[in-house]
Amino acid sequence: MLGALVALASCIGVGTNTPEKHPDLKWTNGGSSVSGSIVVDSNWRWTHIKGETKNCYDGNLWSDKYCPDAATCGKNCVLEGADYSGTYGVTTSGDAATLKFVTHGQYSTNVGSRLYLLKDEKTYQMFNLVGKEFTFTVDVSNLPCGLNGALYFVQMDSDGGMAKYPDNQAGAKYGTGYCDAQCPTDLKFINGIPNSDGWKPQKNDKNSGNGKYGSCCSEMDIWEANSMATAYTPHVCDKLEQTRCSGSACGQNGGGDRFSSSCDPDGCDFNSWRMGNKTFWGPGLIVDTKKPVQVVTQFVGSGGSVTEIKRKYVQGGKVIDNSMTNIAAMSKQYNSVSDEFCQAQKKAFGDNDSFTKHGGFRQLGATLSKGHVLVLSLWDDHDVNMLWLDSVYPTNSNKPGADRGPCKTSSGVPSDVESQNADSTVKYSDIRFGAIDSTYSK
Ligand SMILES: *[C@@H]1O[C@H](CO)[C@@H](O)[C@H](O)[C@H]1NC(C)=O
Ligand SMILES: *[C@@H]1O[C@H](CO)[C@@H](O)[C@H](O)[C@H]1NC(C)=O
């Protein structure tokens, strides 16, 4: 009862300065064209006093005056509609979406973005990947070391958490409800409710901070890449729905240790360079990142069960199978992700196998069959400069598995990339979903 009362007082509404007009994005489902649209996450939005232009959140701080606590904050403040191209550098045309890295808007400088595919104005498009294939074309030619153009799935609620949190009046229309397997606490809203209580600004990020709560859910990283490195990575959680956490239950983000949350933060990654092939992905290489490439990901399985995630690339009319592993400490070679691959890889690299601990592919099938939301994003990394994707990490290590890509260990520093590579972009296009081997030309 107390919970309900507190909740009622903390509703976050929406502003009226900028009408929320979602950029259209066409995609293909089972061979038919679908008119969808995308919405930017609530974290990126202007949050201000209802009916006034005073900020509720500015830089990396919530206003002490308007947001002394989450309930008051929710009552005082609204989430504003988005100027997609002007403020966030996001444009669409037909079946393509382009995300610009740094955008100097009229009122602010925006860095990166995170967007979700909508089915209609108020509802995310849900995908059940089990037994299916997901394909898209990506242009990473303008994405240098330190940036990550990511296309992935998370188990968010289709309404952005409105039903679960009745005080959330913004919902999917305003991009609420994010969660992932890192249980992020840098969310200004958890399901549309301000996360202002206990908010601490980040020392090395003038736009970001961490609140008392985090938001956990399973995550399937179809794609994390720049022109130098790429990985695909399932992460599972114990719970089969978005879950709010606090303290060490949010893992490292909540002040606990890396493995203290109910999710698997490391996942089970297949990065061709890390798995021993340094001539596969990159400018002028077998998959040439100077040109657009079609990326095919197949989820072998049926019902609630997935056994294997396969990858193919298509470029210049040629289908290129994923590279084979070439790691001395692994007795077998693999070119796909499965429980067997994950266990062999973690053992060979001496990594903590939190993927298997949280259920591995059994849990992956269970979460995927519940439906996931598609995320398109572009980001830089204020924690470890994206070195886990494209460089040597830990930086002083020469252990197997530490070498992940050709970028320098000094690369990817946000202040450097945000000034030197501000005009970087990633372009996602021609998203296709359907039966296995149906969405690309052999
Ligand atoms: C591995 O993870 C477990 C929890 O899953 C944790 O207790 C342990 O300390 C971790 N080990 C390392 C080396 O990080
Ligand atoms: C890298 O992958 C390509 C294409 O599969 C293959 O021809 C080449 O031999 C691989 N290199 C190594 C070192 O495994």
UniProtKB/TrEMBL annotation:
Organism of provenance: uncultured symbiotic protist of Neotermes koshunensis
GO BP term, example: cellulose catabolic process
Its EC number(s): 3.2.1.91
Compositional bias (Polar residues): 408-423
Domain of life: Eukaryota
Xref: SUPFAM superfamilies: Concanavalin A-like lectins/glucanases
Pfam families per record: Glyco_hydro_7
Record keywords, A-Z: Carbohydrate metabolism, Cellulose degradation, Glycosidase, Hydrolase, Polysaccharide degradation, Signal
Signal peptide: 1-16
Protein name: cellulose 1,4-beta-cellobiosidase (non-reducing end)
Membership in a protein family: Belongs to the glycosyl hydrolase 7 (cellulase C) family.
Enzyme class: hydrolase
Coiled-coil stretches noted in the UniProt entry, renumbered to this chain: none
Disordered: region residues: 397-423
Reactions this protein catalyses: Hydrolysis of (1->4)-beta-D-glucosidic linkages in cellulose and cellotetraose, releasing cellobiose from the non-reducing ends of the chains
Single annotated GO MF: cellulose 1,4-beta-cellobiosidase activity
